[in-house]
Amino acid sequence: MLRARAFAEPLLAAETLDTSENTLAHADGVVAVLDLIGGGAELKVCTYLVYACEHLNRPRELITKAFGADLAAVALETTKLVQLQRQTRVKAAQVRLERASGADSGSSSGMRATPTELEASQHENIRKMLLAFSRDLRVVLLRLASRLQTLRYIAAAKIEPDPALASESLHVFAPLANRLGIWPIKWEIEDLAFRFLEPQTYKDIARQLDEKRIERESHVEQVRQQLQQALRAQGIQAEVQGRPKHIYSIVKKMRGKALDFDHVFDLRALRVVVPQIEDCYRVLAYAHAHYSPLPEEFDDYIGKPKPNGYQSLHTVIRDAQGRAFELQIRTQGMHEHAEHGVAAHWAYKEAGSKGYQGVHADSDYDAKIAVLRQLLAWQSDVESERRQAATQPLFDDAIYVLTPHAAIVELPKGATALDFAYTVHTDLGHRCRGARVDGAMVALNTPLQNGQTVEIIASKDGGPSRDWLNPEQGYLVSHRAKSKVRAWFNAQAVHSTIQRGRELLDKWLQREGKTALNLDDLASRIGYDDAASLCEALGKDEITLRTVEQLLHPTQAMQAPDEVQLRKARHSPARAPQGSVLVVGMDSLLTQLARCCKPAPPDDIRGYITRGKGVGVHRADCPDYAMLAQRHPGRVIEVQWNGIGAKGDAATHYAVDVAIEAQDRQGLLRDISDAFASQKINVIGVQTQSVKGVAWMTFTVEVTDASRVQRVMAAMQDVAGVRSVRRR
User: Residue limits of the ACT domain (predicted)?
Assistant: First the structure.
């Protein structure tokens, strides 16, 4: 330790921390705190190395050479965590100032023990960082000791503390010390932080304690001596000690149980330390027999230890004058753990087979895991308080990096700079073109590490690349980022669809001489909200231009049903094959397969009586048929397939349209044609159109039944670049 201090002294003697405390004096104070909790020599060496790191050009190389790679790794990890926490507090302070600038100049919110929403968010970020850096417990212990020393200095120097630092100490560091069983640090951090956050309440309780201190201490000492002598007379080698009560714990009890100061039972407290567990229960029996116990205040933490391993018997008794005492009864081993907690096993190899907190450990690794479980349980404690599920992914599943403004961003392990950009803002991700990590340019698919600062280089406009969705190239890990990229391309596809539909509609309106027609009115008449929705439906082939034509050129009123003239079938390319469709209840009627949906057996079909063209046969899901049936329900007639079943050359063939949307590329048409050929499907017509790299194709094929179409469509999905395949 002396060698480490000599190594650091020239670097630190003239330096100061953000609190204005001399850096070397701070390191000496941290060492004193580690002495208090039983920290080992290596941990004290790391203290000086941590603060020396920031003043060395090649800290890892120099510290490794002088003190070994293990201590160099601890020092560098702790230094990184110190810098992250400092940057987080600075950022939080800036946000508070920005919010305060909008408030009245004469108002002041002051500090308080209850955190604001902003502070709670920052506390959660600090907890996550502590977990992320806790692979070596020494890093956490160094941060706890450093925070206590900072609070001690602020109190001694009588300077105004940073509100974020005080709140963070009370709501993050003190609970962590409690979970790890390091109560001396917990109690002192709580009292000092509470003193800064609620100075008036602290002074009131301190004054009431001080007013009765002499009387209380005299009485406690009298009872202590009596109890120790009585226990030894019973053959119990007990050491009875007075136990100081901490102000913050008094306030918590008063607020939690709605008590006033005079009704806090454990203002007078004694601790009894005995050799064996059976002695604990003998002391308890004696105390309950010779004093008046309060049954509701009894807790057996020996039979059922606290989650952090704490063991002791707690009871409250009253003496003959009715004054209440809290009595804690424990063995020497329990007392050692209660005073030092995990600090007693700060080096995992020192824990050996003893493990930690009674957990049996057959190896150094098992002892380490036993300690790390307490850190994860600490996070679960916080979640339970917030009434959330206690299950949280292990810290190995997440990393924590910084924006250039020191805001903490949580990412999944293995995340890249591109994931980071999308997490910060969707638009930043779309426009991302490069990244700097810790000031150095990196590829967008470079995995990030804990504590790195990431700066995104973005263009003014533009969008993502389809390569970003290729898992083999490793650009994105986050599911959220992937969904944002897919959503962008889906939006572009919708835009292309609308543009395609608009072009079809414009050409048709030009041919009809209706270019002055208001498209929004037209869309409304057809049943769409606006022109864009109508054009999208046309672009997707959900409706056809025939629907628009029927709206603009309504047919004359139909004759009454009993006057309709139905003719026999005539030869026509669109006519239903002879005998293939039966009009229920009537024979020898002209039937026509609708061109808008091209039905084929075994499709569910509907009939619609046209004017002069017999019965139009539509698929039941045809949008044109739905519109016609809605306007003229009296023309709907029941039809069904008839006599389907011939095979080979005798089988009837039906023309069916298959619509394909794909990313346009060279050879696309050839590959799709080959896919049809491999399914032995005859293509009798093709229509293609390409808009901004998106190809829209309609293939008219001959099939004997519609089930063949489904197999063909499944085969099309395997063609590179194909996005969707459907029947028109």
Answer: 657-728
